[in-house]
Design brief:
The structure is a single chain. This protein has about 240 residues and is an alpha/beta fold. It has a single domain, classed as NAD(P)-binding Rossmann-like Domain (Rossmann fold), CATH 3.40.50. The protein has six helices and seven strands. It has a seven-stranded parallel beta sheet, with helices on both faces. It starts with 8 loop residues before the first strand and ends in an 11-residue tail after the last strand.
Length: about 240
């Protein structure tokens, strides 16, 4: 497809399907060496697809070691892995709330700690947050909390890591056609699309394209931002 990421070494989490798989495929098409991680077995269909549990320091150590062994360093980390659990806040089990925070917020924190020592020439870290990191919906207490937190982690890391030449940014997808929200899209696609200025639901490749830009040298002076990929949703939503 191109060479915007030629020679860059990228670790992408949640790469078995949906946005993560689109990112892995697009990065490879742009010339990157991709270590694609996931807890789902489908990730093994990708070149250099490995088991990666983002809540495990040992799993992160193994993923980074593979990247360094094969390519000598890490240039890009895409913290894409995420889960959702729907329940009203007063009815949500503590363990369900904790599990969402562990995957969606602790996971990126562990990933950042794992890769930074192996980014000697600087690099780009991309955290996939959500529009739920800007405003809440019913039954999303854990998910929304994690995505607000991920935006905070992004901005703090951008400040802390800037002197090392490492940029840290967040992507905030709107409604994207992924397995996580498939049931919503299938039932309400026409309604959801009609409510967006661009008139369609987002596709995983829309997010992947934004990730390529933030991973590439084209965004060399961009750090600490929230980049909505939302079909214009925020433009028409008061308070966002």
């Amino acid at each position: 497809m191109g060479d915007r990421l030629r020679g860059k070494v990228a670790i992408i989490t949640g790469a078995a399907r949906g946005q993560g798989r689109a990112e892995a495929e697009r990065f490879a098409a742009e010339g990157a060496h991709v270590i694609a991680g996931d807890v789902l077995d489908e990730v093994k269909d990708l070149p250099d697809g490995i088991h990666l549990d983002v809540t495990s320091t040992e799993s992160w150590t193994a993923a980074v070691a593979l990247a360094v062994e094969r390519h000598g360093r890490v240039d890009v980390l895409v913290n894409n892995a995420g889960i959702h659990h729907a329940a009203r806040v007063h009815e949500m089990a503590i363990e369900d709330f904790q599990r969402v925070l562990d995957v969606n917020l602790l996971g990126p924190f562990l990933g950042i700690k794992a890769v930074v020592p192996h980014m000697p020439g600087g690099g780009s870290i991309i955290n996939v947050s959500s529009l739920n990191g800007l405003a809440a919906q019913a039954r999303t207490a854990a998910y929304t909390s994690s995505k607000f937190g991920l935006r905070g982690l992004t901005k703090t890391a951008a400040i802390d890591l800037g002197p090392l030449g490492i940029r840290v940014n967040a992507i905030l997808p709107g409604v994207i056609r992924t397995p996580m929200v498939a049931y919503v899209v299938e039932e309400r696609e026409a309604e959801l699309a009609a409510g967006l200025p661009l008139g369609r639901i987002g596709e995983p490749m829309d997010v992947a394209a934004a990730a390529v830009f933030l991973a590439s040298d084209e965004s060399a002076w961009i750090s600490g931002i929230d980049l909505p990929v939302d079909g214009g949703h925020i433009a028409q939503t008061p308070g966002l």
